[in-house]
Amino acid sequence: VKNKAPAEVQITAEQLLREAKERELELLPPPPQQKITDVEELNDYKLRKRKTFEDNIRKNRTVISNWIKYAQWEESLKEIHRARSIYERALDVDYRNVTLWLKYAEMEMKNRQVNHARNIWDRAITTLPRVNQFWYKYTYMEEMLGNVAGSRQVFERWMEWQPEEQAWHSYINFELRYKEVDRARSIYERYILFTLLVIVHPDVKNWIKYARFEEKHSYFAHARKVYERAVEFFGEEHMDEHLYVAFAKFEENQKEFERVRVIYKYALDRIPKQDAQNLFKNYTIFEKKFGDRRGIEDIIVSKRRFQYEEEVKANPHNYDAWFDYLRLVESDADAETVREVYERAIANIPPIQEKRHWKRYIYLWINYALYEELEAKASKRTRQVYQACIELIPHKKFTFAKIWLLYAQFEIRQKNLPLARRALGTSIGKCPKNKLFKGYIELELQLREFDRCRKLYEKFLEFAPENCTSWIKFAELETILGDIDRARAIYELAISQPRLDMPEVLWKSYIDFEIEQEEYEKTRNLYRRLLQRTQHVKVWISFAQFELSAGKEESLPRCRQIYEEANKAMRNCEEKEERVMLLESWKNFEEEFGTDATKERIVKLMPEKIKKRRKLQAEDGSDAGWEEYYDYIFPEDTANQPNLKLLAMAKLWKKQQQESEAAEMDPDKDIDESES
C-alpha cells in the first residue's frame, strides 16, 4: 500500500460485526438445480452426500438430528437397509432418545415392515417402559392392523408397570370399542384394587368413573355397590363432597329420593362446612325439585346453622354471632337444643372484669331468661337463670340494674312479691345505683305502698344527695299525697345541699310548687334568696314575669321595679349580651303595658351596637391576626359618655362626606338649585 495515511472515514470493529450480522439475513440465491442423466452421475451424487453426512456425524456424534436427517435421506432413496443401519448406529450412540425410536418405528410402518416395527416397539418399551408414547403408538398400530389380541397383550404388559390414570382408561376404552363390557369391568376392578392396595391413584374421580361406567351399561346394582365401597374406602377422615354429590345424583336418577336425603344429610354432618359449599347447593336444588316447603326450610336453616357454628368456633367471644345463632335456633329447634346453645353461649365469660366487655354478654342471660319464661313456660328454670346470672356478676366492681329489675318484675308476674322485694333490697344493699332506686320506688308506687316509697326516697337521698331529680320526685309525691308541709320541708332540705347536679331545675320546681299553692309572698322570698346566690338574667326575667302574672293591681309597678333593680344590678356585669337580653324583655313589657313616657325612657336605655377589632394570639403566643366583634355601649354608663360623643361626631362626619360626594357626582343639580 503506497498511501499509508489514515482514511477520512474510520470503520470500527463494532461496525464491521454489525454489517456482517445484517448481511447474514440477506437471502442467498438458491443453488442451481442439477439434472442427473445416468447411473454414474447418480452414484457420484450419492457418494458426495453420504460423505457429507458421515463427516457431520463424525464431527458431532451426539447430535441426533444429523443421524435422523441421514436416515431420512437414505429412506427417500428407498435404501431401507442403509436407513435401518443408520438408526441402529444412532441407537448405539443414544438409546434413551425418544424421538429416535419414534422416527425409526414410523419409517418401518410407512414402508409396511410390520414385523420390523413390532420388533422396534418391543425393544423401545423394554428399554424405556415409562415412556407412555411408545405404548400408545404400539397399541394403536396393533389395533389398526386388526390384531386385537396382540393389542390386548401389549396393554396387559403395560398395566404391569402400574402406569398413570389415562393408561387404564385407554385400556378400558379399547375394550369398550369391541363391546367387551366384562373385560372392562375386570380392568376397573384391577384399577380400584391398585388404588386400595398400592394407593397409586387414591382419587375420588376414579371411583366415580367406575360407577358411571356401570350406570351407563345399566348395571345399577353394581354402580350402587361401587359408590358404597368408595364411601367405605375414604371413610370419615378423607371425605370428599364430589363423591357424595355423584352418589346422590345417581340415586336421584333411580328415583330413590329418601336415599338421596340420607346421603346428603350423612355428608353434611361429617364434612367440614367450608368444604361442603357444592354439597349444600346440590342439596338445596334437590329439595326444591322433589321436597316440600319444610324440607327446603330445613336445608336453609342447617346451612346457616353451620355458618354460625364456624363463626363461634373461630371466636367464642363474638356475642353478636351467638345472638344470630340463638335467634335461628329458637325459630326452628326444640327446647333442649335451644337450651344447649344458650348454655354454650353463656359459658364464654368475658376474660376482663370491665363493664364495657360485659355489656353484650349480659344480654345472653337476659334472652335466656326471657326464652325460658315466655317460650318454654318454665318459671323454675327462669328463676335459676336469673339467680345464676346475679351470682356471676362481680358486684363489687360493677353491676347491671337491668338484671335486678327484670328479676323482680319476673317474680311479681309469678305473684311472688316477697322475693321481688328481697331481690331489689339485696341489690340496693350490695351495689346501690340510681336506676335500682328508681325501679324499686316505681314498683312500690304501682303497689300504692307510700310508706315504703318514703323510706326508699330517704335511702336514695342518703346515697345521692346531689341528685335534684330525686328531691323533686320526693316532693311531688308528698304534694300528691296532700302533705304540703312535708313537700316544702323537702324542698328546703334540697336547696340547702352544698352540691347539686341541676340546681336551676330544683329552684324552678320549688318556685312552681309555691306558685301552685298560691303562696306569692313565699315565692317572692324564694326569688330573693335565689338572687342572693346568682344574678343570672333569666332569674330576673322570670321574677318580673311572675310579678306580672300575679294578677293584682300593683303587679305592673312591681314588675317595672324588678326590671329597674335588675338593670342596676347588671351594670357591672361583664356579659353585655345578658344585659341586652334584660333590656329587650323590659322593652317588650313596656310596649305592651307601659305609657309613652316609660316607652321613651326604655328606648333611651337601649345600647348602641358597634363593630370593633381586637388582636388574636395563638397558643404559642404569636400573633394570629385580627378579628371583628360586636360590642354594646350603654347610655346609662357615665364612663361611656365620651365614647357616645365620639360616636355621634363620627356619624355626623360620615354624613357630611356622603353629601359632598353626591354634590361632586351631580354638578348640574347644584346649578339648577342656584338659579332657582
From TrEMBL:
InterPro entries: HAT, HAT_PRP39_C, HAT_Syf1_CNRKL1_C, Syf1-like, TPR-like_helical_dom_sf. Pfam families: HAT_PRP39_C, HAT_Syf1_CNRKL1_C. Residues 661-676 have a biased composition (Acidic residues). GO terms for biological process: spliceosomal complex assembly. It is found in: Nucleus speckle. Residues 65-351 form the Pre-mRNA-splicing factor Syf1/CRNKL1-like C-terminal HAT-repeats domain. Keywords: mRNA processing, mRNA splicing, Nucleus, Phosphoprotein, Repeat, Spliceosome. GO terms for cellular component: nuclear speck; post-mRNA release spliceosomal complex; precatalytic spliceosome; Prp19 complex; U2-type catalytic step 2 spliceosome. Residues 656-676 are annotated as: Disordered. The keyword Secreted does not apply. Signal peptide: none annotated. Involved in pre-mRNA splicing process. As a component of the minor spliceosome, involved in the splicing of U12-type introns in pre-mRNAs. Belongs to the crooked-neck family. This is Crooked neck-like protein 1. It comes from Geococcyx californianus (Greater roadrunner). The gene is Crnkl1.
